[in-house]
Design goal:
Number of helices: 5
Distance between the termini: 52 Å
Largest sheet: 3 strands, antiparallel
Structural class: alpha+beta
Oligomer: single chain
């Protein structure tokens, strides 16, 4: 609410002091009426600026999403192997695809993954079907990287990760499924922990 008054005072100061003009009542009252008419526009100016910045951030996020890697189509679960395993797999955190292509074009000898990047090297794990598997370890030991690798959310540098992928509409098929409180493993779902 103070911005129209502040603009009026600065305008009068500039007119009378800086430019050295004579501020008459006709000029002052006419200016006050004009500034009162501009009150809504002056009050809305900060909010408009904030909305423009938010729109710019949103557009950048949409652009980053649209320039991301395409998702490969997933066959139905009945047509996939149910084996969950790592076979000589080396995995690392996903790299920013836009950053990677810009770096690769500028420096042709640059490696795709920096050497200081955390990696799980030469994983050979086989998870038993129909049984509960626990992943535990110290902070920073790679538990999250291991689980994200099973979900296909990391970069596999070597070897192979085997894990059935759920089609995009897989959760809808469990909408009306009844699961007893004693079941921990539900086919098609990693684990169900009753509350």
């Amino acid at each position: 609410n103070g911005s129209p008054i502040l603009v009026t005072l600065v305008a009068f100061w500039h007119f009378a002091v800086y430019r050295g003009e004579r501020l008459t009542p006709s000029i002052a009252f006419t200016s006050i009426i004009v500034f009162n008419e501009m009150k809504f526009a002056l009050n809305a100016l900060p909010e408009t600026f904030i909305n423009m910045l938010q729109s710019l951030v949103s557009l950048r996020r949409i652009e980053k999403y649209m320039n991301g890697a395409e998702v490969t189509p997933v066959p139905p679960l009945s047509q996939q192997s149910q084996k969950i395993a790592f076979q000589s797999a080396t995995v690392t955190w996903p790299q920013d695809r836009l950053q990677k292509t810009a770096t690769a074009s500028a420096l042709p000898s640059a490696a795709a993954t920096p050497k200081h990047k955390f990696m799980l090297i030469d994983l050979n794990l086989d998870f038993p079907l129909g049984e509960l598997s626990l992943v535990c370890g110290k902070l920073g030991s790679g538990k999250t990287l291991l689980l994200l690798s099973l979900l296909g959310e990391t970069d596999v540098l070597a070897g192979q990760t085997l894990c059935p992928r759920s089609p995009p509409d897989a959760l809808a098929s469990f909408a009306n499924a009844l699961v007893s409180k004693d079941e921990w493993i539900v086919p098609g779902v990693c684990a169900y922990v009753p509350q």
